[in-house]
Amino acid sequence: MTNTSTPTDAGFAGTLKNIQLNDLIQMCCLSGSSLCMRVNKDDRLGTIFIVDGEIIHADCEGVVGEEAFYQILCWQTGSFESIETSTTPERTIHQNYHFLIMEAARRVDEASLYAEEDFSPGEDSDEDHLRVLIVDDSPMMRKILSSMLTTSGSRIKVVGMAGNGKEAISLIDELSPDLVTLDVNMPVMDGTSTIKHIMIKKPCPVVITSNPGEGSSKAIFNFLELGAVDFMSKPTKSQDILTQQQKILERVRIAATANVGNFHIPRIPKAKDSERFSHPTEGMCHRLIIVVSGPGGHPEQIRLLHDLVPVVTDSMSSVVAILSLPSLFADAFASYLKQRCRCPASPIDKQRSLAVGHCYVGIHGCPLKVKMNAEIPTIGPADAESSAEAFPLDRLLTTAAALFKQRLTVVLLSGAGTGEQEGLRLVHESGGRIILQERVSAMVAKPLDAVVEAGLADMEVRPADLVRAVQESLVQQARTL
User: Fold this and answer.
1) Cβ(165)–Cβ(138) under 8 Å?
2) Within 10 Å of residue 176's Cβ, how many Cβ atoms?
3) Domain tally for the chain?
4) Can you give the pLDDT at residue 7?
């Protein structure tokens, strides 16, 4: 029942042009609003009810519930208005808005693709599709991930879904997927036991999916050291859906190229409490070493930092370690390095002086900047205008090259993406050294291939020889100064 009486100061009236219906619904849900929305398309009419940020009901031409919602969101043009109602209809939609909008977008994409290319889903070939197995104890999360991965044009096929590790092991034997997304905490068999079984019985690329928190960081590092290629956060309703989907697709595609036969568990000697592995000072560093890792690069990075940080003091150097993980992992990884490797490490969460013998931990997607502060080299988060940069690592490399010139060494490990290589080019032109992990030894070599093809790599080195190669680079730098 529509109430047409409107108080004098009930709000604004106006027109929004060129707005997508899914954007408007997403805004209402994120703000926890309640709204009855009437949508018109030519002579077709649909209604969507949102209560306290949840989509509870939709009706369209005699259809109700989820199917009605999808029909309405498939309309690419039309008009809408909010209406007041004195009653709340019975709930016919039980999925969360995140899933509903993603599924609607997938259906729109599919409808457009079939219209343009005149083929049906049954005629599409699976041979050139990436075959993924989703392992998560939440049926809802399995559906959301499946919807995100199988969007039109993704060339990804979800060949199976499992609710625990035991089911996953059985399906891997049966389906031989190209990649597995693996939850951390599950009943029957958890993620830790599952990845051990996968790497022993039937190795394949594994991407860990989790909602990262303070207590889970160390567990994620353990997964990466057990053979997982990468980690990605589960989708959340507090962030833009399409942006999250794009990031997930990117990580899955690059992880699927991993050669898991190159994985080796990092053997780090256990240190006694009284044993000190390095002798850092507060002196100003004269040389800088930047170690960048990406998917598949964590084992090599932990091995390299364990051996490298203690030996850089004599060369008056600092080390910057860049991870391809969410931002909250910087502090966790710094603590992990202290405990696991006994090396002094700090997250780059503020402007910090680059001190001799110290390691500074940053995140691949967070812009960082090297600069002089009162004649002391420092590193810290870049200014606000850098936050929208297409490839944030460039800011770190360009500013480091400008300051340290031939006293800069960059080490690129498995999966270390360098974008359009603007930063690496400046490192090269400034006389700095660029050392690559030998590509045949890397789990994910494709990003390293691009560096070699651009003629920017000074040398490729076996993992066992990386520390020696860096030391020789430091000696060579000292001779040329």
Assistant:
1) no
2) 12
3) 3
4) 46
Which residues are CB-contacts of 97 (< 8 A; sequence separation ≥ 6)? 25, 26, 29, 53, 54, 55, 237
Q: Which helix (H) or strand (E) holds 437?
A: strand 433-437
Together in a domain, 349 and 251 = no
Residues 162-172: b if buried by 16+ CB within 10 A, e if exposed: bbbbbbbbebb
Q: What is the pLDDT of residue 90?
A: 92
Q: Name the helix (H) or strand (E) containing 299.
A: helix 298-308
Exposure of 299 in the CB half-sphere (CA atoms within 13 A): 22
- In whole angstroms, give the CA distance from residue 46 to residue 83: 12
Task: Note whether 340 and 474 are same-domain residues.
Answer: yes
Q: Are residues 89 and 176 in the same domain?
A: no
Residues 94 and 223 in one domain: no
Q: Which parts of the chain register pLDDT below 50?
A: 1-9, 113-124, 214, 273-277
Which residues form the domain of 84?
21-99
Q: Which residues contact 26 (CB under 8 A, 6 or more apart)?
A: 97, 101, 241
Return the pLDDT at 359: 93
299 and 234 fall within a common domain: no
Residue at 321 is within a domain: yes
Cα distance between residue 383 and residue 348, in whole Å: 14
> Would 245 be classed as within a structural domain?
yes
Residues 333 and 452 in one domain: yes
Count other C-beta atoms under 10 Å from residue 183's C-beta: 26
Residue with tokens 């030998």: 438
Partnered with residue 55 across adjacent β-strands are 50
The answer on 302 and 232 residing in a single domain is no
b/e sequence 115-149, b meaning 16+ C-beta within 10 Å: eeeeeeeeeeeeeebbbbbbbbbeeebbbbbbbbb
- In this structure, are 319 and 405 located in the same domain? yes
The per-residue pLDDT for 248 is: 93
Residue 67: HSE in the Cβ half-sphere, 13 Å Cα cutoff: 4
